[in-house]
Amino acid sequence: MFSPHARRLVALAVLVVALEAVCRAHLVRPTDLVPPTIMLRSMAAALTEPVTLYNVWQTLSSVAASVVIAAVAGVAAGIVLHALPRLRQACEPFIASYYALPLFALYPLLVVILGVGTAPIVFTGTLYAAMSVLIGTLSGLDHVPPVFRKAAKVHRLGPGRRLASIYIPSCSREILGGITLGVSYAFVAVIASEFLLAPAGIGHDIADSYMSFKIERMYGLMLALLMLVLLVNTMLRHLRVRIGAPAI
Amino acid sequence: MIWKNARRRLDVALICLALALAWQIASWKLGTDVLPGPWHTLRQLAALIGQPRFRSDIAATANAYGISLIIAMAGGLTLGLICGGWKAVGDEIEPPILALIATPKVMLYPIILLFFGLGDAAKIFFGLLHGLPPVVIIMANALRTLRPVYRKVSQTMRLSRRAYARHVLIPAVMPEAVASFRICFALTLLGVLIGEMFASTRGLGHLLFASIGTNDQLTIMAITLLLFVFAGLGSSLLLGVRQSFKNSSA
Fold first, then answer.
1. What is the ipTM of this complex?
2. CB of A69 within 8 A of CB of A133?
3. Nearest chain A CA: its distance from B184 CA (Å)
């Protein structure tokens, strides 16, 4: 009767209406949860403030910088590890346990090393995003068809030419898949770092609103962040499907 | 085979040694106050383990982590089987779960704190939020991509539902289940630690957060090292289990 998309929209609408009713009937305290209409209103109000826009810009630019650095570093590290299978096998336990670490706990250390500002946040984002790019690169290089390797041999290409002309183009789908996942990880790391100690960014703004009991503003900013993250991730998911990137 | 395993262990040990060396050199360059070296960190870790307060923090984290992990694995497995077995249910449940995976869950901490308050419930919930979704998605995919020949063979052999589940389905999806548990193992730990950082007064995450506040680099490094060793050992163990399942089903 309904398409899955329409069913999901109806379910979301029902949920929002129920939430509105629960809040308006004072079944939950207004200091705990505010109605969705107030969330939307405070989101719209917050997004007209230059400070909020600056914070959004700060977060987005940190994520973008992290992803660019992670893409370069992840691909380079993936190529090195693929070329040295013994090293790769030895590194496997480290790769497997990498995402269990709260790397943003090292933020104070990074502030001392890199100074106050966006550099420690970008570095943390890079640390999180680079691993998914590395895994994507390894997966791609593992699946380069043998005929491509033979063709490279027949044409007597050097290692640099082989990588640039054959290997990297042939595994670009997997690398792009890793980069798109890296964007999600970079968001997680950047926002977590901003929550912890950073002087700016949307994560900092949410934490600040919570600490100063501006609950409506906090929910408005959370809604804005949620919508931003979902929009970016939906676009990336479509891109992954379009380029046929495998799940990593 | 024994020689191969021994060589692999030696390689891992050499990597650890190289990392420790790089860490020590970085410590000398930056100064031990900024980045304590591996020896100082190990000594601090040993000193911390000797303190009853630290042991109670480890116990608090282990308790919350254990509960969260069990619920995440069991819940994820059940939901994954439901989503993979019934397409209509999967179509409804999987998109919000995928959205949850991509969301920076740390931003939800004020809400979780408001609803659960400071304590174990909040950090267990944080662990669940991180650990459960990947198990659901991986298990649903594992069921969906099961080779059709398995079902055909079981039908040809007229296996009962129970026999099909026991002899075909479970062995076929087991490597994927263990792979999802490995991801769950790491992410649940991260979730519980984040929960403790923001929504708890006990545990290693809380101690980490307090150390960040007091700029106690030595304790930060000691806890990070402890977590890295724990996560590395756990992941390696599950990697080994997955490999043995793969070998036995090959």
1. 0.71
2. no
3. 9
pTM: 0.80
**Chain A residues near residue B141 by CB distance under 8 angstroms:** 247
User: Are the C-beta atoms of residues A164 and A233 closer than 8 Å to each other?
Assistant: no
| Whether residue A144 sits in one domain with residue A74 | yes
DSSP state of A165: I
pLDDT one digit per residue (tens) for chain B, 250 residues: 677 778 878 888 888 899 899 999 988 988 888 888 899 999 999 999 999 999 999 999 999 999 999 999 999 999 988 888 887 788 778 888 887 887 888 878 778 887 887 778 888 998 999 899 889 988 888 888 778 888 888 888 888 888 887 888 888 888 788 888 888 888 898 889 888 887 778 888 888 888 887 878 888 889 888 888 888 788 778 777 777 776 666 5
Co-location of A84 and A160 in the same domain: yes
What does the block give as tokens for B12? 């891992």
Nearest to B224 among A32, A106, A247 (CB): A106
Q: Structurally, what CATH architecture does the domain formed by B54-249 represent?
A: Orthogonal Bundle (1.10)
Which residues constitute the domain of residue A7? 1-31
Residue A248 within a domain:
no
Are A2 and A68 in the same domain? Answer: no
Cβ distance B96 to B228 under 8 Å?
Answer: no
